[in-house]
Amino acid sequence: QVQLVESGGGSVQAGGSLRLTCAASGSQIIAYGTGWFRQVPGKEREFVAAVRGSGYSTEYADSVKGRFIISRDSAKNSVYLRMNVLKPEDTAVYYCAAVLGPDLGTKTYAYDYWGQGTQVTVSS
Fold first, then answer.
1. Helix (H/G/I), strand (E/B), else coil: 14
2. DSSP character string of 28-86
3. FRET partner for 42 with CA separation of 20 to 30 A, picked from 56, 93, 95, 124?
4. Residue pLDDT, tens place only, 90-118
């Protein structure tokens, strides 16, 4: 199995940028599809972005297309989420998730492994 730890969250003004990092251990991330989800208190955890273990295919939620970019660095065994043109509605706890194999998933049940989250707060 793989262990995931998120970092890079913080507070930023609307229009600013942040880069979240998902550091993996226990396994190579190239063997896993990985995704980012976010959750606001009282709401369901929602899909943000995903990338296949191959790195050849990505998916994004409509709400973040053109603003967020998911990427990986195999040398650092990490997955990143670059968030640009942040909006107050992007405020949430962001979670990294992984599933062994080539599939992309946009639902929480598609993933087997989860980090503990990092807070992102965007002010107007």
1. coil
2. -GGGEEEEEEEE-TTS--EEEEEE-TTSS-EEE-TTTTTTEEEEEETTTTEEEEEE-S-
3. 124
4. 999 999 999 998 777 899 999 999 999 99
